[in-house]
Amino acid sequence: MKLSDLNKPVSMNLGSQCNPEILYHLPIPPALHKFNARLLLGKDWWDDIRMSVYASNNWACFACDDTEGGQLDAHECYDFDFKKRIATCTDIVPLCKLCHNFIHWRGITTRYRRDRCLKHGIQVLLDAGLKVPYENVRQFGRHLPRRKVRRVWTLMKMTAFHNPNWKLDVSIYGLPLEVYPEWSRERLIV
Predict the structure, then answer these.
(1) What is the number of structural domains in the chain?
(2) CA gap 73, 65 in Å, rounded
(3) What is the residue range of 61's domain?
(4) Longest Cα separation, the chain
(5) Of 113, 109, 19, 28, which is closest to residue 57 (Cα–Cα)?
(6) pLDDT tens-place values along the chain, 190 residues long
(7) Mode of pairing for the β-strands spanning 149-150 and 86-96
(8) Neighbour-count burial of 60, counting CB atoms closer than 10 A to its CB (0-12 exposed, 13-18 middle, 19+ buried)
(9) Residue 49 in domain
(10) Which of 51, 113, 137, 150 is deepest in the core (most CB within 10 A)?
(11) Residue 99 has what pLDDT?
């Protein structure tokens, strides 16, 4: 059976939508960094999915509605159960490079790129009348008044986040466990 013959998820986005609150999305726990759809199901399968996700939102960023940047990333959205340490993939949305990097800014190594994406994400949130996550303020936006800051992490979330025993619920893909690489199966819930 080829991966192209299997069911593929369809983004829940219908038409061009914009929701800056996606920038509050927490990064995936370190224990699951190697458990993304691209690595689990292969580049060809992932390329088909991400192209359909981009088209489903009219080639616009889901966070800032930018269509001028020209380059989109497909971002997997997760719900986190911090007590059971289960991350459930709920959707895949298109994000411009700056918005995607705002969510994953901890992995950006050059200061210029990190500052650029943080500045962009903070501006998108402020333009939408939303508060800026405290973690981003600590790094970049110290000048913001307190009423514009939102705490995203709690001590419980931080402790669970770094626990090595996370599992990934990939039932959104609708694929049997056998299609996933053997090395990943003990961490997956289908």
Answers:
(1) 1
(2) 13
(3) 15-110+155-172
(4) 56
(5) 19
(6) 233 333 444 444 444 588 999 998 887 888 888 888 888 888 999 999 999 999 999 999 999 998 876 689 999 999 988 889 999 999 999 999 999 988 887 666 677 777 888 889 889 998 999 888 766 555 555 555 555 555 555 655 667 778 888 999 989 888 888 888 888 888 899 8
(7) unpaired
(8) buried
(9) yes
(10) 137
(11) 92
Let me know if residue 51 belongs to a domain: yes
The amino acid occupying position 51 is: M
Q: What is the DSSP letter of 160?
A: H
DSSP per position, 66-105: --SS--EEEEEEEEEETTTTEEEEEEEEEEEHHHHHHHTG
| Per-residue pLDDT at 169 | 92
Asked whether the beta carbons of 60 and 16 are under 8 A apart, the reply is yes
Q: Is 185 helix (H, G, I), strand (E, B) or coil?
A: helix
In a domain, 182, yes or no: no
Three-class secondary structure of residue 175 per DSSP = coil
Is position 134 within any domain?
no
What is the model's pLDDT at position 44? 93
